């Protein structure tokens, strides 16, 4: 063994160090509070501790009618003054009415002014000046907090949209408005709030049923292990039962088609052709024609003949595939630690995802507060220009555009760092993809090395090295980090291109013409196919790296040509393996799901008293089913890697050895009997 693809290894280490540096820089400049807390028009956080807004956790909009939708309110800036408040309004009121009744009912003013700018307490100021300077909102409406923002408290009464049981309200400018005018400003809020209520109930269900969910997942793990062990004895039986079942079902279909064809004989209109009756929306019309059933019968006969011919000509390769599946089960039985290696891959990927997400958040919040001129007049030439809130009142803008204000718009900046934030986000995404693919490659190479050590052990299990999984992991890290990083780099580049294409497709969806849409669709399809092909090549290249210790390009080339020389065996083994593993996943997930259904619906008398009281029994049920499928997938992915490794070793064994004493086969006796080769040389004691 020697180090392979050293240059790529050095580049990979440098990139990792640079990625750490990027995270540190983002951490220094970023401020996640910009995501956690809403920001008012002065750039201050609502609810931030040790500030004037510590007890004011909710953002209030002076005129929510100016806001188009909740998406605009959350992601962009609504063109109205925004203020941090301790609670949302719970009544209808207008500044005009409050000012008029100030002398008689001062408590109304005391309530209303908490939604005015801090420090404003002049109810005698003219309405026109207050609205111009936006000292107070022209109106307040009953609201409730959502995402720490005040939204109208919508409800439906007898099919009519209302706010606090009212269908109309005063807009504070002398007009009566219908509450439907608020709909666009808070579209879909009720449904989301209802979803929040459902979410709380789901959380409660998880809180009281997590123990039983874990038990269900443990049962799924045991069933997965049992299925892998039993494959050594049942792989052939399961496959042939399925094949003959398909042949029997198709045979019944042929008989049924003939029966229908013969039954329609002599019935008026049944001898018409499909061309005679033309296109019909009711498919039953075609079932009254003899020609339809004749066509079905011919198609099914063709399929039946093809399946039977494939079984006749590929029977030996199918037997080899089944033997390799049994051998894979035997190999896992000797190296049981491999079944738990996916946990290592999961932890590595979880670390990558966490680091990427944190870095992305800090990069996205790295900007400084940017303030822009917000003018009431549409023709103000200074509107949307950047401004300084500290010097704004000394400029001519307030004179040329009466009522204009310098308010917080977003976070950004003009420095070199801020200009390249998008590039940094792109680099963050690219290195994330590279690291994730490297973690997957490391797992595949480690498992391949462990299973290859089983195959090339002349006397099994006596010659299997001690701790094969840990030895393989050490070899992969020590000698082949560069090769694994090289394969992961190629895949990451293609995946990044796919991400960019998806981004462009999303951005150009409303403006693109037919040619652009067609071109993007073709590019997305091509790169999807390329990614699938590269994953297949990389997987087999990592197996060859684990076996021979060569560099990535040499291993990929040798693996590709080795597979091409055995292309029929590859196809047969792939489909047989896919079928049996898919069957195993369905059996595990379905079996545990049925058991969980009977348990959570109290249909098992023995455990009826142990069942927790749930809002929705389907919450833990679906969690158990999906979790069981993922658990089975994790175990079976190890099995699939085992079978692929044994297959490449088997092909190499056939090409390099001839079964003689000088070049004995390393394959098992069952594989040797299927091939009908020379007799195995006697194994040394």
The number of helices is 20
- Note the gap between the termini: 29 Å
Radius of gyration over all CA atoms, rounded: 35 Å
Task: Please provide the count of β strands.
Answer: 13
Q: β content, as a range?
A: 5-15%
| Uncertain segments | 68-76, 678-685
Biggest sheet record: 3 strands, antiparallel
**What is the average per-residue confidence, as pLDDT, rounded to a whole number?**
81
Q: Any idea what the shape is?
A: extended
Specify the helix fraction band: 55-70%
Biggest β-sheet: strands ordered side by side in the sheet:
12-11-13
**Given the helix and strand composition, which structural class is it?**
mainly alpha
Subcellular location: Cell membrane
Keywords: Antiport, Cell membrane, Glycoprotein, Membrane, Transmembrane, Transmembrane helix, Transport
Transmembrane segments: 7-28, 210-230, 237-255, 293-314, 334-358, 431-458, 479-501, 513-530, 579-600, 621-641
Organism: Sclerurus mexicanus (tawny-throated leaftosser)
């Amino acid at each position: 063994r020697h180090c392979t693809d050293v240059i790529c290894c050095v580049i990979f280490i440098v990139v990792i160090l640079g990625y750490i540096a990027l995270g540190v820089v983002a951490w220094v400049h970023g401020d996640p509070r910009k995501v956690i807390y809403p920001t008012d028009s002065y750039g201050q956080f609502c609810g931030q501790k040790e500030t004037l807004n510590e007890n004011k956790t909710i953002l209030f909009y002076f005129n929510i009618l100016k806001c188009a939708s909740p998406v605009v309110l959350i992601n962009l800036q609504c063109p109205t003054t925004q203020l941090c408040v301790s609670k949302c309004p719970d009544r209808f009121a207008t500044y005009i009415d409050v000012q008029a009744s100030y002398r008689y009912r001062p408590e109304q003013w005391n309530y209303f002014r908490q939604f005015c700018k801090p420090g404003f307490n002049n109810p005698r100021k003219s309405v026109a000046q207050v609205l111009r300077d936006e000292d107070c909102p022209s109106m307040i409406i009953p609201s409730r907090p959502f995402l720490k923002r005040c939204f109208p408290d919508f409800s439906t009464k007898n099919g009519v949209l209302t706010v606090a049981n009212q269908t109309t309200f005063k807009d504070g400018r002398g007009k009566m408005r219908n509450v439907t005018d608020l709909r666009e400003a808070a579209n879909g809020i009720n449904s989301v709030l209802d979803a929040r209520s459902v979410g709380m109930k789901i959380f409660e269900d998880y809180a009281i049923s997590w123990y039983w969910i874990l038990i269900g997942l443990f049962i799924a793990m045991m069933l997965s292990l049992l299925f892998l062990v039993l494959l050594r004895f049942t792989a052939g039986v399961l496959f042939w039962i399925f094949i003959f079942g398909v042949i029997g079902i198709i045979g019944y279909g042929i008989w049924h088609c003939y029966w229908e064809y013969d039954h329609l004989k002599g019935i008026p209109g049944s001898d018409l052709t499909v061309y005679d009756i033309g296109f019909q929306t009711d498919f039953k019309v075609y079932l009254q024609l003899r020609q339809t059933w004749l066509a079905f019968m011919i198609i099914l006969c063709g399929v039946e003949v093809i399946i039977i011919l494939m079984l006749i000509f590929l029977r030996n390769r199918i037997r080899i595939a089944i033997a390799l599946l049994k051998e894979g089960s035997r190999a896992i039985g000797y190296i049981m630690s491999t079944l738990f290696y996916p946990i290592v891959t999961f932890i590595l990927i979880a670390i990558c995802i966490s680091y990427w997400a944190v870095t992305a958040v800090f990069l996205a919040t790295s900007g400084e507060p940017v303030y822009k001129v917000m003018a009431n007049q549409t023709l103000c030439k200074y509107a949307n220009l950047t401004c300084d809130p500290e010097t704004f009142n000394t400029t001519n803008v307030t004179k040329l555009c009466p009522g204009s204000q310098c308010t917080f718009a977003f976070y950004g900046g003009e420095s070199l760092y801020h200009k390249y934030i998008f590039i940094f986000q792109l680099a963050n995404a690219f290195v994330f993809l590279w690291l994730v693919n490297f973690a997957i490659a490391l797992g595949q190479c480690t498992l391949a090395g462990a299973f290859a050590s089983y195959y090339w052990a002349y006397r099994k299990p006596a010659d299997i090295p001690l701790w094969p999984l840990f030895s393989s992991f050490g070899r992969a890290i020590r000698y082949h980090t560069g090769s694994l990083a090289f394969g992961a780099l190629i895949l990451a580049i293609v995946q990044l291109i796919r991400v960019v294409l998806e981004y462009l497709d999303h951005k150009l969806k409303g403006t693109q013409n037919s040619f652009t849409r067609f071109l993007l669709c073709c590019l997305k399809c091509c790169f999807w196919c390329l990614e699938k092909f590269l994953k297949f090549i990389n997987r087999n290249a990592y197996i060859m790296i684990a076996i021979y210790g060569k560099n990535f390009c040499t291993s990929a080339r040798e693996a590709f040509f080795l597979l091409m020389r055995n292309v029929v065996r590859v196809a047969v083994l792939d489909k047989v393996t896919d079928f049996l593993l898919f069957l195993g996943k369905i059996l595990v997930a379905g079996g545990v799901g049925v058991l969980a259904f009977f348990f959570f619906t109290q249909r098992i008398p023995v455990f009826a008293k142990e069942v927790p009281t749930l809002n929705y029994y389907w919450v833990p049920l679906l969690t158990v089913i999906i979790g069981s499928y993922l658990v089975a997938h994790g175990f079976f992915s190890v099995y699939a890697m085992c079978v692929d490794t044994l297959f490449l070793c088997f092909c190499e064994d056939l090409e390099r050895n001839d079964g003689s004493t000088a070049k004995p086969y390393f394959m098992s006796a069952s594989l040797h009997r299927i091939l009908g080769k020379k007799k195995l040389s006697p194994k040394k004691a």
